[in-house]
Amino acid sequence: MIRSLEIGKRALIANQRGFDVTSNNIANVNTPGYARQALMLQPGESVPAGGLYFGMGVLSAGIRQFRDELIERDYRSSTSTQSYYQQEATTLQRIETALGEPGNQTIQTAMQQFFDAASQLAANPSRIADRQLFLARASDLAAALNRTGNAIESLRSRTFDRATSTANRINELLSTLASINQQINATLDASGQPAASLVDRQTQALQELSQYLDVSVSREPTGTVNVTSSGMVLVSLNTALSVNALQQLNASTGETTLSFSIRKPDGTTIGTFQPRSGELASLAKSYNVTLNPLSSSTEFSIARELDRLASTLADRVNAFMTTGYGLNDTGPVPPGRALFVAAGGPAITARTIAVNTALLADPAAVPTSSTPNTPGNSDIIAATAALASDGTFLDSMTPEGYYGAITAQLAQIGAGTNDRLTAAKTVLQQITTERESLSGVNLDEEATNLITYQRAFEAAARVVTVSSDMLSTLVNLGR
Amino acid sequence: MRVTLQSLTTRLQSTLTDLSARQAQQQTRIATGQRLLQLSDAPSDIADITSYRSTIARLQRYSSTLDGALAEQGTTETALESIATTLSNVQTLGIDAQQIANHDKWNVFAQHLLSNIRAIIEAANTSHGDIYVLAGTKNTAASLQPTAPLETTQMPFELVTTSPTPANPSGLEVRFKGNTEARFVQTGDGHTEQVSTTADKVFGSGGTEVFTTLIALYNTFAYAPDGTPRSDGQLPTAEELDRVAAYIKQIADATTTVNQATAEVGVRTDRMTAQHEQIAEDITRQREFLSRLTDTDVAAATMQLQRDQIAYEYSLKIGARMLNLSLFDFLQ
């Protein structure tokens, strides 16, 4: 009888635990990173009695989490890839916004209006109103280039800020992982397994980390993890290193680049690293190449191309203007007036191009003629207007052709990025589905489990009741 | 394969998000009439779009230039016709002066001739806007500074009175302050067109040869061979008659020259007009090509929007049905 009571008791406990595990699954149906759990049962030991061996009920062997490390690894990798292209797509979209493309008030529009005004002035070089219009259009063109150049630079600055805040979040996650490692070591269960909730938190932190970096995870038998990225150790047991975003200046070229250093907890720098995937890698590429006006990479740099356009336009126009004469110039030496100058910088770039204030103050001084005191001579301004159709302007293209090539290249890169992003999302969705299929909570399944454990509990309770009655009968024998 | 609540909701959310985004895109395309909302919508078309826009702008530029040039040709043609008519009148005057009945009226003919000379100068000083059409590239008042004390105006042609000489007893002289450089404008890719008629093409060498002849004729009418003013009834000599005949022939040649210059302006005008019309047609064609790439096909966009709306509606219905079903609803 006592044996039956013990068997009943063990059954009650096991089914109660099973009920608890099922309830926990239901409660965490929407928890990100949660992997469903199942109670592992095993038969109790067999005890000898009267020449026979009797089983001693059921024991809880442990709690199993349904998680596949290979799927988790693929999930993290796909997350990194998707985040990389997502960030790149966002940056490209912001560049399009800065350019105002596709739209009606763009640099191309300003260039067209500038050459229109030059052409009009070439037909009427002595007319002051046309000179004023020409200067106004030149100012508009300079302003359009300034606006776009400044917007690109502002985007670059925000990219660095974003990289810094991302690095800070990465460091928080690395600290969390190190802390979890410590907690896991302190709370291993009887079978040497870590607490499932800690593993869930660990998984969640790794998933979020993989958005920012390409991470490699090596898991110890106890459940602690070591995290590396691009060959650099970031978390080793209880120790978390930190990632820091740095702006490095090349003193000879004036170029600033974004790089990342790894530091020990005491602040010592142990090296630099270059993330290969994730948001941080995309931010680095944007800062160092796409938005960098001094980029020497063969990859597309919108800042560099805009600066080339601005400086070449200024150089070609000024080459004509400095050899020309204004309305009141009597010669014989050309006064050497340039139309475009650099304001606030040593060289003419998209951000510094400006119209010569001396000409703005005196439109009659705009050099239009190739000979002095011949206001009807429009050779210089006609040559300036003819630049619009000069196929040798830059890289065997006209000015508008070159700008069109910039926007076309941007469009191609954007389309390619969107395609890769779509593909990455599809892959991630498939892996997520596979992951959910293994680790996710199916409410119908849990409802079934609830009933199963409930019925088993009821049956075990019945066993205890009957055993108690039988024991009571034995005790009351002979009364 | 196990299907969990998360996988159902995630998939549903993703589908609804995509369909919403597509609907929003189509609505924007229909509302704005613009097919391209982002450069990456049609990367292969961007280069073409930029090229068409650039071509249209360039053609419009040439068209505008031709408009101005055509207007100037009109002004120039009117001035040249006036000059030719006046020169014809001078020819007639000279022929009338050769009639015996008019031999005693040469001082009267001199006055008529002088007024014709002034009329020719006035026509030669025709301006289009603020530029003088026959002044070459020194064609503004500011660039035509008079040389004191004889010159007083800022016009290209000026009749001044110098000291009388035996060869020029009146001392009259027409000064030309402009130059004979032609003005050009660009009317096509790599193509320029002359828009001005130079003074030497109209009036001969230096822009004053005709005026020299006219003044010489005036001197013959107004002055006797000894350089004194011709008196009423004073008859011309045979040598003077011969000179008048020679001057009339020179003036006839000058009239032909002016008519040739007028014809050149006419030919130029026709050429520019034809070019202008061709450019207008080119612009229309280029705009059509551009429209095919940039403008929304409203019918297609509307159909696509309807399809997306239907897909969205059915996704909502199916999602609602699937998410509502659960074993918990049936357990007692």
Q: Would you write up a description of this structure?
A:
The complex is a heterodimer of chains A (479) and B (332). Chain A contains eleven helices and 13 strands. Chain A has 479 residues and is α+β, with helices and mostly antiparallel strands. In chain A, the strands form five sheets. A four-stranded antiparallel β-sheet of chain A has the order 5-6-7-8, with helices on one face. In chain A, α4 packs antiparallel against α6. Chain A is rod-shaped. With 332 residues, chain B is mainly alpha-helical. Chain B has a domain of 185 residues: f41 fragment of flagellin, N-terminal domain. Chain B has seven helices and six strands. A two-stranded antiparallel sheet of chain B has the order 1-2. In chain B, strands 3-4 form a two-stranded antiparallel sheet. In chain B, β5 and β6 form a beta hairpin. The longest helix of chain B has 57 residues. Chains A and B meet through α2, α3, α9, α10 and α11 of A and α1, α2 and β5 of B.
Task: Please render the helix and strand layout as text.
The complex is a heterodimer of chains A (479) and B (332).
Chain A: H1 2-27, E1 37-43, E2 46-49, E3 52-55, E4 58-65, H2 69-99, H3 107-123, H4 128-186, H5 196-212, E5 216-219, E6 225-229, E7 232-236, E8 239-240, E9 242-249, E10 256-263, E11 269-273, H6 278-290, H7 302-321, E12 340-342, E13 353-355, H8 357-361, H9 379-386, H10 399-439, H11 443-475
Antiparallel strand pairs in A: 1-4, 2-3, 5-6, 6-7, 7-8, 9-10, 10-11, 12-13
Helix pairs in contact in A: 1-11, 2-4, 2-5, 2-6, 2-10, 3-4, 3-9, 3-10, 4-5, 4-6, 4-7, 7-9, 7-10
Chain B: H1 5-32, H2 43-97, H3 106-124, E1 127-128, E2 131-132, E3 157-161, E4 172-176, E5 184-188, E6 191-194, H4 199-203, H5 209-222, H6 238-294, H7 298-324
Antiparallel strand pairs in B: 1-2, 3-4, 5-6
Please give the most extensive interface between any two protein chains, plus how many residues each contributes.
A-B, 63 and 61 residues
Binned, the helix content of chain A reads 55-70%
Percent of residues in beta strands of chain B: 5-15%
User: Tell me about the biggest sheet of chain B?
Assistant: 2 strands, antiparallel
Mean pLDDT of chain B: 92
In the predicted model, the low-confidence regions of chain A spanning at least 5 consecutive residues are: none
The beta-strand count of chain B equals 6
Terminal-residue CA separation of chain A:
19 Å
- Can you count the beta strands of chain A? 13
What proportion of the residues of chain B is helical, as a percent range? 55-70%
Shape of chain A: rod-shaped
**SS element count, helices of chain A:** 11
Multimer state: heterodimer
Q: Shape of chain B from CA axes?
A: rod-shaped
Backbone structural class of chain A: alpha+beta
The order of strands across the largest sheet of chain A is 5-6-7-8
